[in-house]
Write a structure and sequence with these properties.
One of its GO terms (cellular component) is beta-galactosidase complex. The chain is α+β, with helices and mostly antiparallel strands. Helix content is 15%, strand content 31%. Strand 36 and strand 37 form a beta hairpin.
């Protein structure tokens, strides 16, 4: 942990030394290093004047208490910052061993090695040089968590409370030449200003409620007449920028001088620079003055967007006798606007393909403050085809904006609040004014960054929200036109805020796969009521089974005790050896679901964008494993960025297909479409298609005539038709569509089965009940196929849909579905006539969706079914959809899916029944396990011994009554 901390420190120092506002060495005293430290558990430090004595402990800054093992051991009585809706952990008997001292395993989120909420003191001696006399001396704390209170020697300087911006104190009146003592009291408890315990700016669900200071920590000596603020307002159309400069004069004399500005590009192949613009300036004593200058650009002006993120540095000089102050500001010439229901970047329509960043930093427990660290994260996001990031109820440090400018991403930071589960907006609580204050600080600190294109006040509020958010949006629309504004990011049941410039909203998302999967439908009717851009809130949330190999990565302030608990519980249920298979099988289904939901939005005309939840896992709220990346932004092994970006990119071929399972007497038809959100139209593009079998044999192919495609969703390309009569055996086929001459391609699997009537083999006794005849057949060495659909008792409580678990079953109090895909023994000869991989795919829908599962809790420890639904990791029940066994002298296959001769309208179910019968009639039908008839009979008689019980009356907002009362009329 110490080694990791020093690496973080090195990055922080490098960033502070290379930042755009770096000062000469003699004007900066860096305060990184060892500080005196003491925990103020009883909140008595102020009364006892701890600022007047040496503190008894030491700590290293930048950093947090948890990082240096300061704080308390985790117990069941630890006072967390975050809601816990599922209290069953505290009562379930099988979890009792995880509630014991020394073996505490918290399932709700990652567990810090140490935890502390309250006041702590940080103290350091500094030597102020004589040449600083007469200068303005600032204490810069890049990010402190949460409230800081500062003393110089025995004099109090002040108090600040910001979750989004540096805490900067003017120490000029308090410091003198020579050795001085600076004391900082930091309090990370929720006090009068309550942003909400689940806000990602403070909660244990994500970064954690840490106590400390990170990033740049320094004393800076600047001119007493100084440039306080520079804000740049690009005017791309007219090739100019309006530059607003505020100069402060802290002296007792009037100031007269000159100010000059000039800009030069720095990160593009083609360079550009402006002419210098200057003006005279007068500032009265102890006053300030704001001026505006127009900075013209020439014909070589470079613009910023996701494709060409060209940037400039603006150099501002303030010159007078004895005064020479300067400031460098990074910016991009761009215009991010809305026309109708579309976003425009520099006049070009853009579709937002976003992911939600929840402040996941599992090594430090606090956000990165270096550009290098953020570039790694943001480049990874962009490699998966995304161009947009929403920061859920938090605002990242400046380094994130600098990196996003360079990488080319559109950002939506938020006010650091989820004002729900306690606080509410619009009722006069302190959070009301705090959100104005915080977003004002965000605009001042980060407003020049080209990537800062959108702003939300926070997440999913309660209270008098419409009135409050209307006023909030109106305030910002009038104040700053460099970005676009919404109220708060909300789910579909929240009331509509009429004044927002765009909707960041749920309700028009998801896959309606209670009916047969298809790729024809879209969201047109859902977005029709909205006349502004609709950006879908938190799409996806499709779960995957935990990756237990991830546990070893947690070498910082957190331990993955939740993963450890789930791993041991899986082993206790005799499935420890299956964890990786569960991960990969559920992962493949997860990717399939993200693909289909994203494509549904891309083919919806007028849909403006989405914010996925997410590309990476969410470590809290019960452990929400919704990402194809882990919380470290690293791959889990079942999908690559190249594969993912086939369906999530600036250009994506689409296919409208009515169904994915066919009889060979039918014709496969598809309408080919295109999504394009490029910098320029696709000129004379040729779209081609190919249908292949699993041997890569080309069965059919074609091209569409060259055409120019403007930016848009679901643009019609043409139709294809492929008769299936020549497909004589059960086959998986693949349709691939490409934009010729580019890397843009996409594909879809579909299945074709012989059109035959299901029949019962004479050598097999088919039954829907485990009757006396079945027992007699088994005792005599015969074969039995038991179709147990709708007969299951042991496992009846487990609800399986085709779609996987949403978010996680703990946060939603075991709301179904409970199953996250299936593991299929695809190499078994049982599937010789039913092409399948090891995971659920679309041909399994009519077999799997809403089928009962069987709980094998009394089966032998090594028993593995042919088709195994993967249970939620909070329960880890050993489940089966189809299993085989030897019983007595005979052999049996038991299916809780409806497989049999009476199933006429489900081609995949019919074909699977055919394949299983052929298997039973082959000499390969030799089940590994011997079972008693009683253990099988018990599935249809006795309920599960272990069933979920919730002990919490409260619930997340999404489950509360009346949550759908405010739909758009």
């Amino acid at each position: 942990m110490k080694k990791y901390s020093y690496v973080c420190l090195l990055f922080a120092i490098l960033f502070s030394l290379s930042s755009f506002n770096a000062k000469p060495k003699d004007e900066v005293i860096h305060l990184e290093g060892n500080w005196h430290f003491e925990i103020d558990r009883k909140d008595e430090g102020i009364a006892q004047k701890w600022y007047n004595r040496n503190l008894s402990d030491k700590i290293h800054l930048p950093g947090s208490m948890a990082e240096f093992l300061k704080g308390d051991e985790i117990t069941l009585k630890t006072k967390w910052t975050g809601s816990i809706y599922d209290s069953s952990f505290y009562f379930i008997p099988r979890f009792e061993k995880y509630r014991q001292p020394g073996n505490i395993h918290i399932p709700f989120w990652l567990t810090p090695v140490k935890h502390y909420v309250g006041a702590a003191w940080y103290q350091k001696g500094v030597n102020i040089p004589a040449n600083w006399k007469g200068k303005r001396i600032l204490l810069h704390l890049e990010r402190a968590h949460i409230e800081t209170r500062v003393w110089v020697n025995d004099r109090e300087v002040g108090l600040q409370n910001s979750l989004v911006a540096p805490h900067v104190y003017d120490l000029s009146p308090y410091l003198s030449t020579g050795k001085q003592r600076i004391s900082i009291r930091i309090d990370n408890s929720i006090k009068k200003i309550n942003v909400g315990p689940d806000s990602h700016s403070i909660t244990d669900h994500t970064q954690g409620n840490w106590n400390g200071i990170i990033g740049k920590i320094a004393l800076e000596a600047i001119s007493p007449v100084y440039i306080d603020d520079v804000q740049i307002y690009p005017d791309v159309k007219n090739r100019k920028a309006r530059v607003k400069i505020t100069v402060n004069n802290s002296t007792a004399n009037n100031f007269n001088g000159k100010i000059t500005i000039a800009a030069k590009s720095f990160n593009s192949k083609v360079s550009d620079q402006t002419q210098e613009v200057s003006t005279t300036l007068s500032v009265s004593k102890q006053g300030d003055k704001t001026i505006q200058l127009e900075l013209p650009f020439g014909k070589g002006m470079l613009t910023w967007d996701e494709f060409d993120p060209a940037l400039y540095n603006l150099d501002v000089q303030l010159i007078s006798k004895g005064i020479n102050a300067s400031k460098k500001v990074q910016f991009g010439m761009r215009e991010f606007k809305i026309v109708g229901n579309r976003f425009l970047i520099n006049g070009n329509p853009v579709f937002l393909r976003g992911t939600v960043h929840n402040c996941e930093f599992p090594l430090t427990g606090y956000p990165a403050t270096t550009v290098e660290a953020w570039e790694i994260i943001l480049k990874k996001i962009k490699s998966y085809g995304f161009n947009h990031v929403r920061f859920h109820s938090w605002c990242p440090p400046e380094a994130a904006f600098i990196a996003a400018d360079k990488v080319g991403l559109y950002l939506q930071p938020e006010g650091p609040s989820w004002p729900n589960h306690g606080p509410k907006i619009g009722l006069g609580q302190p959070v009301d004014q705090f959100l104005y204050d915080e977003t004002t600080r965000m605009a001042k600190e980060y407003g020049n960054y080209a990537s800062f294109t959108m702003l939300s006040a926070g997440n999913e509020p309660a209270g008098n929200q419409v009135k409050y958010l209307n006023e909030f949006v109106d305030f910002w629309k009038a104040k700053d036109n460099r970005r676009v504004y919404t109220g708060m990011s909300v789910g579909g049941s929240w009331p509509v805020v009429p004044n927002v410039e765009y909707q960041a909203r749920g309700g028009v998302r998801g896959l309606k796969w209670e009916k047969m999967p298809e790729t024809e439908s879209d969201f047109s009717s859902g977005i029709e009521p909205f006349k502004v851009p609709f950006v879908s809130h938190e799409i996806g949330q499709y779960c995957v089974f935990p990756n237990f190999e991830e546990i070893k990565k947690y070498k910082g302030v957190y331990r993955a005790k939740n993963f450890e608990m789930f791993r041991q519980d899986l082993a206790d249920h005799n499935m420890g050896d299956q964890s990786k298979d569960f991960l990969n099988a559920s992962g493949k289904l997860q990717v399939l679901c993200y693909k289909n939901e994203i494509e549904k939005m891309l083919r919806t005309p007028g849909y403006a964008g989405f914010q996925a939840l997410g590309l990476q896992d969410f470590p809290g709220q019960g452990t929400a494993l919704v990402g194809v990346l882990d919380a470290f932004f690293q791959e889990k092994g079942y999908v690559t960025s190249q594969e993912y970006s086939r369906f999530c990119n600036s250009t994506v071929p689409l296919a409208k297909i009515s169904k994915f399972v066919y009889n060979n007497g039918e014709t496969f038809k598809a309408e080919i479409a295109l999504f394009h959100s490029g910098k320029t139209p696709l000129q004379n593009a040729v779209i081609s298609w190919t249908i292949k079998n699993e041997k890569e044999d080309v069965l059919s192919s074609g091209n569409f005539d060259p055409k120019t495609y403007e930016n848009g969703n679901g643009i019609l390309v043409g139709n294809l038709s492929f008769p299936l009569a020549d497909i004589k055996i059960a086959s998986k086929l693949n349709l691939e569509v490409k934009v010729n001459g580019t890397a843009f391609a996409n594909d879809w699997n579909f299945w074709v089965y012989p059109n035959r009537k299901p029949e019962i083999s004479s050598s097999i006794y088919y039954t829907t009940v485990l009757d006396d005849k079945a027992k007699e057949v088994l005792n005599n060495g015969g074969k039995v196929f038991l179709n147990a659909a709708a007969k299951v008792v042991k496992g009846k409580e487990v609800e399986m849909h085709f779609l996987p678990v949403f978010w996680n079953t703990s946060w939603f109090k075991m709301r179904p579905p409970h199953v996250t895909g299936m593991l299929i023994q695809d190499k078994s000869p049982a599937f010789a006539d039913f092409p399948t991989s090891f995971h659920s795919d679309l041909q399994w829908w009519d077999i799997q969706n809403r089928a009962q599962v069987m709980n094998l809790e009394d089966f032998p420890a090594d028993f593995r079914p042919l088709i195994q639904p993967i249970d939620t990791w909070f329960m880890n029940r050993r489940l089966a959809l189809v299993f085989e066994a030897q019983v007595g002298k005979g052999k049996i296959i038991v299916s809780s899916a409806n497989l049999g001769p009476d199933v006429q309208d489900k081609p995949a179910s019919r074909e699977l029944f055919f394949s299983l019968q052929n298997y039973m009639n082959s000499n390969q039908f030799n089940p590994k396990n011997q079972l008693s008839i009683d253990v099988i009979q018990d599935i249809f008689v006795s309920p599960s011994k272990e069933q979920f019980k919730t002990y919490t009356k409260d619930s997340p907002d999404e489950l509360k009554p009346n949550s759908n009362q405010n739909k758009v009329k």
